[in-house]
Design goal:
The chain starts with 11 loop residues before the first helix and ends with a helix. Helix 1 crosses helix 2. It has a domain of 48 residues. It is mainly α and 108 residues long.
Length: 108
């Protein structure tokens, strides 16, 4: 640890245990050490261990959210999901739904 950081006595043991979990190349990073102490004070050793595990992971700078591009030949209506016959399907479904059921009439 850096001599600049003052670690309270109640956290000395926890900090030593947590420093063993940090990769050697990151142990001298004062920002990581300060954040570790903050997480230790706020949430205890479990939260500080979780922070260390997250700091070990490498995240890509740019993530590809959409891997597939739309083809040039696709119409804009089809790309939006609006198809010309969708309205007809909805009307047919509504008409079928609103038809009286012969069994229901017999029940009444």
């Amino acid at each position: 640890m850096s001599e600049k950081m003052i670690i309270p006595d109640e956290f000395q043991g926890s900090v030593r245990r947590l420093l063993n979990r940090i990769p050697p190349e990151q142990r001298d990073d004062e920002t990581l050490q300060a954040a570790l102490l903050v997480y230790l004070k706020l949430g205890g050793e479990k939260l500080a261990r979780h922070y260390i595990e997250i700091s070990k992971k490498v995240f890509p700078d740019q993530m590809v959210l959409i891997k597939k591009q739309l083809h040039d030949g696709v119409d804009e209506d089809e790309a939006d999901g609006d198809h010309p016959d969708d309205a007809e399907r909805v009307e047919e479904y509504a008409a079928d739904f609103n038809k009286p059921d012969s069994d229901a009439e017999a029940f009444i």
